[in-house]
Amino acid sequence: MWKSFFSFRGGIDRRTYAFRMAAAFAGLLLTGVLVFAPAYWALVTIDQAGRIDHRLFQALSAVAVPVTVTLLLPAYSWSTTALTTQRVRNAGFSPIAIVPAMLAIGPVDRLMLQPAIDARLGWPLTGMTPVGGALSVLALIVLFVLPPKAPADLAARRPPNPVALSRSTFGLRRPS
Question: How many domains would you assign to the chain?
Answer without folding.
Answer: 1
